[in-house]
Write a structure and sequence with these properties.
CATH architecture of the largest domain: Alpha-Beta Barrel
CATH class of the largest domain: Alpha Beta
Number of domains: 3
Number of strands: 21
Low-confidence stretches: none
Distance between the termini: 30 Å
CATH superfamily of the largest domain: Phosphoenolpyruvate-binding domains
CATH topology of the largest domain: TIM Barrel
Strand order of the largest sheet: 1-2-3-12-13-14-15-16
Oligomer: single chain
Helix content: 25-40%
Radius of gyration: 24 Å
């Protein structure tokens, strides 16, 4: 088994990784969590994969987090009569609502919302931005465009409208059906795609109704305009660099990534960096040097989790990709500069609450007290553990919770090792003994070391972290 790292790995399941054997290998290689992508596959396939993960979770004796990623309002062109056509720079090309198969003159764009939002002078990006269409004129059912950047366009390729908010919800009817199904499966996280505003997050949270935690995927420029509010409403954030890099000038994506990570840390909201991290490993057993640097940069920035997409879903080397990502993380975290950077980037809590103060003080105490082995975070909702992880201490964070759902969800949080402990939540007298037992039994501490405990009194009251305690293990 690979050594434990603070930064977590989220692997996407697909044809290359859906068998029990492959999923087991991915866990052994370092995957902490799995993404079930509802843009592909059937409900039965997703059900079987979740079932296998839960079985492997029991067999391997470790919690594994599961993300159900909703497709969202993915906008696509319709069918071409010959499957694809070649568009030449300077030619006229029409997008319309006519369902008739397209040719090199026109194609159906079955999204009335796009035509309602379009105006002359806008650019439409097709096939991840490889094709650019400039809108010359348009109405409610048709847009006449000039091809600015040509190339081959095939059936059902995606369409993006940079800097054009669309009058559509981030949750389609398909998403609603997928969401109900995913919640019945007992997934831990729901991924909300193409978030445009804080209202999208509010709508999703209402539908989820506390049955899972929500990851807001940032891939639209309008979401960046409401960044702070979206972060505070969400349980976690994903920097979805694929569509973000199409919707925004590509050179701005690294800057936005750093801005988002810093804002997430401010609000103690976990953040995931995703898309093309080890893209070349879809077809090659080794990544490029640039890709290694990209993953390392995300780790140095303090991301909670890094994600693999097609690398594990459809690539030829899914296990090798996870193993390589784990090696990169371990190498960075073994660099003395890493925790120096984490400490230097710490800021005073922006709120003056008991729980913010206690978790900040716990990290400070770990730097002063000698031989501290771990921070033990008692939590019922998971919030206290989020706050502890925000400080990025150079220690394992052991989250003790009575709730298995909370334990599984906390897997995606930086540095956290979750454990179920119901006994200590029944009596305050058991808090110290249970914390020591969890740390020693699981190999995180030994005699002659200290542990730091954060907890709340009364024990089962949410949001009442008001105790900081040290224990010397005899």
């Amino acid at each position: 088994m690979p050594i434990d790292t603070h930064t977590k790995i989220l692997a996407t399941i697909g044809p290359s990784s859906s068998t029990r054997e492959q999923l087991s290998k991915l866990i052994d290689a370092g995957a902490d969590a799995f993404r079930v992508n509802f843009s592909h596959g059937t409900h039965e396939e997703h059900k079987e994969r979740v079932k296998i993960i839960r079985q492997l979770e029991k067999e391997k004796g470790k919690f594994i987090s599961i993300l159900a990623d909703l497709q969202g309002p993915k906008l696509r062109v319709g069918e071409f009569a010959d499957g694809k056509v070649n568009l030449v720079e300077g030619q006229t090309f029409v997008l319309d609502m006519n369902p008739k198969p397209g040719d090199d003159k026109r194609v159906c764009l079955p999204h009335k919302e796009i035509f309602e939002a379009l105006k002359p002078g806008d650019d439409l990006l097709v096939n991840d931005g490889y094709i650019v269409l400039h809108v010359d004129s348009c109405d409610k059912e048709k847009a006449i465009t000039t091809v600015k950047v040509g190339g081959v366009i095939s059936s059902h390729k995606g369409v993006n409208l940079p800097n054009t908010p669309l009058p559509i919800s981030a949750i389609t009817q398909k998403d609603r059906e997928d969401l109900k199904f995913a919640l019945k499966l007992g997934v831990d996280w729901i991924g909300l795609s193409f978030v445009q505003s804080a209202d999208d997050v509010r709508e999703a949270k209402k539908l989820i109704d506390g049955k899972a935690w929500l990851i807001s995927k940032l891939e639209k420029p309008s979401a960046i305009e409401e960044l702070d509010e979206i972060i505070q409403l969400s349980d976690a954030i994903m920097v979805a660099r694929g569509d973000l890099g199409v919707e925004c000038p590509i050179q701005t994506v690294p800057v936005m990534q750093k801005r988002i990570v810093e804002a997430c840390r401010k609000y103690a909201t976990p953040v995931i960096i995703a898309t093309q991290m080890l893209e070349s490993m879809i077809n090659n057993p080794n990544p490029t040097r640039a890709e290694v640097s990209d993953v390392a940069t995300a780790v140095y920035d303090g991301a909670d989790t890094v994600m693999l997409s097609a690398e594990t879903a459809a690539g030829k080397y899914p296990v090798e990709a996870v193993n390589m990502m784990h090696k990169i993380i371990a190498q960075v975290e073994n660099d003395p500069l890493f925790f120096e950077m984490m400490r230097n980037s710490r800021k005073m809590p922006y709120r003056a609450t008991e729980e913010d103060s206690i978790t900040f003080a716990a990290s400070e105490l770990s730097c002063v007290l000698k031989d501290v082995a771990a921070i033990i975070s008692y939590t019922t909702s998971g919030r206290t553990t989020f706050l502890t992880a925000r400080e990025r201490p150079n220690l394992p964070i052991l989250a003790l919770t009575p709730d298995i759902d909370v334990a599984r969800r906390l897997v995606l949080v930086w540095g956290v090792k979750p454990f179920i402990n119901k006994e200590s939540f029944k009596s305050f007298d058991k808090v110290e003994d249970c914390a020591v037992a969890a740390a020693v039994k699981n190999g995180f501490a030994k005699a002659g070391q200290h542990i730091i405990i954060t907890a709340g009194f009364p024990l089962n009251a949410k949001g009442r972290t008001n105790m900081l305690h040290t224990v010397y293990i005899k």
